[in-house]
Queue: 2 jobs
Job 1
Amino acid sequence: MRPRPHITTAARTAARTAALTPLALSLSLSLGAASLALPAPAAHAAPTAAAPYDFNGDGRTDLAIGAPGATVAGQARAGAVSVVYGSTSGPKTSTRTLLTQNTAGMPGAAEADDAFGSALASADLNTDGYADLLVGTPGEDGSDSNDGTVTIVWGSASGLSGARSLFSFFSTDYDRYGRTLAAGDFDGDGDIDVAVGSTGPITLSLVNGPLTRTGGSNGGSGSRNDWWSSSNGVTHLSSGDVTGDGRPRVVLHGRTAHDGAAATALADMKIGNYTDWLQKLPAGFVSAVGDIDGDGHADIAVGNDREASADPGGALGGKVTVVYGGPDGPDSGRAPLVLTQDTAGVPGAAEKGDRFGSGVSLGDINGDRYADLAIGTPGENGSAGAVTVLYGSASGLTTKGALSYTQNTAGVPGASETGDRFGERVTLTDHTGDRRADLSVSAPGENSGDGAVWSLRATATGPTTSGSTSFGPGTTGISTSGTPGYGTALNS
């Protein structure tokens, strides 16, 4: 994976340097990539930070829901985000925060086609004990059309309030900044950094921490790589401690430049020219990272919901590939596990258009300390949709006891209807504070594109439909004008 180097012109480099003064800009080259680097702060120990998406610090994960198609103040597809706070019974819609670019204290203004809420990520960026929310707005116009922006909304004891824009160093060299996001201490200096996907020529940016409410820039970098299609850019990011050294690596998704096929790779962003040292992974469009077998190395579940006729890495009805982690990244001594709906023990059957693997999430549902896997299949039964749950174990992921849920499952609110796309996105996270990951599912096609979200509480035997809840955009203050696509993005 050694594409030829590509370097911006001296004039553009000079222009960026002037714009970034007094920050120093260096250009480091390798055989495969150009990395535009800004200086990082000295390493130091970070205080204890809140868990991602725990915005009010109560020990329960809150649920962030993106509706990038939402109309705001008459502006079509301006976009909105609902945050529903966790409680002992799960996400509680009576305690919520509605965010748009017209919300008081938010940078910018709601405009048509901004698509605020297209991507979400969370971390305690300023280590104050409250998780903060990152919101991608890839359609925002800046120095040019669809320049894109990312907003940081700050957590507090009373929830989310106050915001600022994330630093954007190379706006003349990318578009749709914020189309995908990930947060973590990627460079190992003790501060939380943010990785941002965009379209090219720079397709991946790293913004160095610490990030605070009023502080200045601490540097960053932007990378290009001729293996990736710059027109498609980086389309999805996930992250986790795959090597077990305490520092997360980043999983990148895009398309190859030569044929547009899905491309997935693992990057170590501590390396200055990180896109020259990509470890290739099975091709897919989304991923989740978690420790399935409890060995201290996070594993990677890669979803590819395309047919083989639409993508060379696809399969009939879609597939998910589990890559087990090891000290050097992917464990080369352990074969990846490939799952389809024709795999023994997996509910259902592989059928054209099922889109098995459209959404994937890893989390410990039953409290046994092994990460379990939720897989969305939004194309099932005429795009009514379904979700499959598989369990982790000391020997890895197992299909024993696998479960399947649809809107026709007893206890699940609603009814399966053509075009709902139940399972387009899934997330496993602890909303109740019982140290078990609850299952939340979105169906952006529900009610002719309004969208909706379901939450099923976790138990020792898996997600239960008893007491499960469902709500749509209107319940959380989002207009149903047009097609808001509520649930297009969920907690990552």
Job 2
Amino acid sequence: MAFRARTIGKTSLFKGEDSTENAFTLVIGDNGCGKTQLLLDICNYYQMLYGELLNSESADISVIRRDYFNQSFKWETIEKAFGHSVPQKLICASTSQFEKFVESWRLNNDFVQGGYYAYIGSKPFIPDRLPSTRIASTALNQLLARDTYDARKIQSLREFLLSFGFDDVLKISLEPIFSLDELNKVKNGDLSIAPETQIALRNAYEYFELEDINELNFLMEFIINEPEVLLCFSDSGVLLNSVSKNKTIQYSSRELADLLMSGLVSVANIETIKGQCFSEQGLSESAKIRPLASRSSGEQCLFLLFLGIISSIDDNSLILIDEPEISLHPSWQQRFVEILNKSLRTYSGCHFVIATHSPLIVSDIAVKNCEILDMTEQLLTNASVHSLRSSDYHLATLFHNPGHSNEYLIKTAIYIFSKVKAEKKFETQDLEKLRMLNDQLSLLHKDDPVIELVEMLNEVYHKYG
């Protein structure tokens, strides 16, 4: 099985094959053409569809739920039972402060580990928190909140971290939502707790029962006393290690995930570590620590996007990414789809829908199952037609913004000149290229040299055409 989001409304998203390979749709177009709204429409549609399936009264859903937890379940059972193609996980990601994805969406009867919907973004806004720590907190919760160990997830995460010099150990600083005094009041049933504490507990009750909250409150005391912890991504899973050599962590990774999900604890800071020995108790003397916030904005964006996606993904997922090029160096923009495909190659049947303004992301497409949706022209094309072409080619032909002295247009005009000069006639392909050049004239500034070249070509056409 492979998931493909074929259409949304009247818009065609993908026409390719249903192979187990991951598929990509790159959504391009002018500002205001509806790229972001398209991603929101896709997200809303599959949230609605999944909600309807889970809330149905069909006996099949009970069997599906049982088999899922027995790990004898195949996702295509959903399609057979309900006649709909539904992704196994819906992931929405953006590092833009203007993104519009919904922060949280959950169903009380959801059976997907970590939840069917995963959000990777800077919401909720917290005045004293950097966006990077807010996004990472959500991603870490997705990574840790699993009942079963997924070796592929750790493998993908380690491969990405090591490839970009982040290393496979993180040091995180945790911060409880209230103080030790307030915590003691909560434990003792003291009604004089602060309004902020009451609000935090009320929010936590949306996810957990009273008995669970009491257990989490007990664990919070450990975090208040030792707020820093090492996350080690090893072959055997995510290991928690104390920063102090004479202490051990008193809670599991799953319990930490519950604390993060409840909102009773948040990530206050993240640091990457080089040279940390997994088997050594406490922080190694040779370890080199670097705060994530001290890295470039591009490194932070790449780190957070991939940490979030890898933490959340499953086979047959639908991943919506809005403007991944923000703050990325041009070389990383050009390799973005390649990096994504390589890092997640152990997952199959996924469909990535990426809205972008970057010709560099489009310019080096070398993966199969990739199509380009031009929202301005409402045109869906196979990306192989545009593969391994220059940025100037994409600016002119796909982004409808050739800029000044576009090299692709100049080289095309010169090629036609030399060919017609030798053969004294225009072939069909020459006429198609000439029509393309004439279509570009209205997009060029009046002093652009391309205009003069095209006008000269038109004169030659009148002579030999």
